[in-house]
Amino acid sequence: MKDEACIFCKIANGVIPSTTVYEDEDFRVILDLGPASRGHALILPKSHFRDLCEADPLLTAKIFPLAGKIGAAMKQGLGASGFNVVQNNGASAGQTVFHLHIHVIPRYEDGPAMVSWTPEKADTEELAKTASMIKKALKITR
Ligand code: 5GP
Ligand code: ZN
Question: How far apart are CA 8 and CA 18, in angstroms?
Answer without folding.
Answer: 10
